[in-house]
Specification:
five-stranded mixed sheet; 27 strands; 14% helix; elongated; WD40_rpt; anaphase-promoting complex binding; WD repeat; Cdc20/Fizzy
Length: 485
């Protein structure tokens, strides 16, 4: 019978689905029983000392940790959180995403998957306020009664420039035998869109509207040369200053010389018109006023310069004449009165701030009391003057010889310097630029240089976006090369 009892015990041990009633006591149970013998002594003798693992109460101490209590209260049940399969899937998903690049984590689809996995739906779809599409315009007649408490306008430096300025010339004209002389003024553009250029002892006209080249005149002696050109305001007549001390007046429409005026003792390097008064500057330093309506044309002489007068410009309103010379002076003279000035030959202002020859002079069209002047190699400065107060408003070191200045009214710029802030540099010449002149519509400037070419730059067009579209349509090249002769 004892043998059968032993076999029954073996079978009961091998059955894992049944509780072990007579197995060895666990280590933590032995320690617990030894440390609390007084508590065990109160137990009923009928109960076994070996408590089963399937007991309904968990021990008050963690197995194997006799000195450290569990977070729960002594004698209470230890909390074991319940995790369902859904939460385990989300945890596994998040762990795998930790090893992926940042770009993948920021992906919209990934964020959507996270939202669906964590919340059971996409949280973006549950937003109360959602921005989508273009904002609606206010109804017609709507007025906003809210007051602006604070407003700050953007500074000019932060305004984005949307105007397109090509850095290459739109057209190039050959100008062979151009005299390489800084003090001469060999280019001028008329109000009738004719560009006049002097090449040695010849004068040519380029019809900017039709593109034709017109030969106007040639000096009789080969050793003589043309020194200066200036159109009348109407564009019908062209004044020509020569090296033989004369000033010629030509009728362009009939290609005929109207008269030749002799009064200077040296070459005439600068010219400027004020209605029927033609002012001419000479290498002698003298400035002569000519009334072209009368036979005795020479009506006044201005003697403020000690060296050649290379710059001469009347103001747009005809009140002042500005002159610049090789003596580094800038002079401002009063208006010419009918019948001559007599003894009134004193300059209103005489500025000596420049340290080089002053050839570049330009009056501001929209503010006639403002004059800009540019100095030569020893000076390299552009200075802006207020004729009313006689003060220098601003000065800029250009790091280069300044040979010509032009105000562009379309954008209120001084060639490429609005408020003395450079907008763009135009690169098309291989030598220094002698003269700059503006087209009658103020959209294009012409430059002439010692490299014997004339470049036309469409830098001041009023609708640059439309022009850019037209250039894209054209299949031909942007530069048309043509000879002036």
């Amino acid at each position: 019978m004892a043998q059968f009892g032993f076999e029954n015990d073996i079978h009961s041990i091998l059955k894992l689905d049944m509780p072990i009633t007579n197995g060895p006591m666990a280590r933590w149970q032995r320690k617990a029983s030894s440390s609390s013998s007084s508590a065990l002594s109160g137990l009923s003798p009928s109960k076994s000392a070996n408590v089963s693992l399937g007991s309904s109460k968990t021990p008050s101490k963690t197995p194997g940790k006799s000195k450290k209590q569990t977070p729960c209260k002594m004698g209470g049940d230890r909390f074991i959180p319940v995790r369902n399969n859904k939460q385990m899937d989300v945890a596994s998903f998040l762990l795998t995403k930790e090893n992926e690049p940042v770009e993948a984590k920021n992906n919209t689809e990934t964020q959507k998957a996270w939202s669906i996995s964590l919340n059971g739906y996409n949280i973006e779809d549950a937003k109360i306020l959602h921005l989508g599409g273009r904002p609606l315009n206010a109804p017609e007649g709507y007025q906003n009664n809210l007051k602006v408490l604070y407003s700050q306008a953007t500074t000019p430096a932060s305004v984005k420039k949307t105007r397109y300025i090509s850095s290459t010339p739109d057209r190039i004209l050959d100008a062979p035998e151009l005299r390489n002389d800084f003090y001469l003024n060999l280019l001028d553009w008329s109000s009738r869109n004719f560009l006049a250029v002097a090449l040695h002892n010849n004068v040519y006209l380029w019809d900017a509207t039709r593109g034709d080249i017109i030969f106007l005149m040639k000096l009789e002696r080969e050793e003589d040369y043309v020194c200066s050109l200036s159109w009348t305001k109407e564009g019908s007549y062209l004044a020509v200053g020569t090296s033989d001390c004369k000033v010629q007046l030509w009728d362009v429409e009939h290609q005929k010389r109207v008269r030749s005026m002799a009064s200077h003792t040296a070459r005439v390097g600068s010219l400027s018109w004020n209605d029927h008064i033609l002012s001419s500057g000479s290498r002698s330093g003298h400035i002569h006023h000519h009334d072209v309506r009368v036979a005795e044309h020479h009506i006044c002489t201005l003697t403020g310069h000690s060296q050649e007068v290379c710059g001469l410009q009347w103001s747009p309103d005809g009140r002042y004449l500005a002159s610049g010379g090789n003596d580094n002076l800038v002079c401002v003279w009063p208006r010419v009165q009918d019948g001559g000035l007599g003894n009134r030959s004193q300059a209103i202002h005489k500025w000596s701030d420049h340290q080089g020859a002053v050839k570049a002079l330009a009056w501001c069209p929209w503010q006639p009391n403002i004059l800009a002047s540019g100095g030569g190699t020893s000076d390299r400065h552009i200075r802006v003057w207020n004729v009313n107060s006689g003060s220098c408003i601003s000065s800029l070191d250009t790091q280069s010889q300044v040979s010509s200045l032009v105000f562009a009214p379309n954008y209120k710029e001084l060639v490429s310097y609005p408020s003395l802030t450079k907008v763009v540099e135009l690169h098309g010449h291989d030598d220094r630029v002698f003269n700059v002149t503006l087209s009658p519509d103020a959209s294009t400037i012409a430059t002439i240089s010692g490299d014997e070419i004339i470049c036309l730059w469409k830098s001041f067009e009023m609708d640059p976006v439309k022009k850019a579209k037209e250039k894209m349509v054209k299949s031909t090249t942007n530069i048309t090369h043509q000879s002036i002769r």
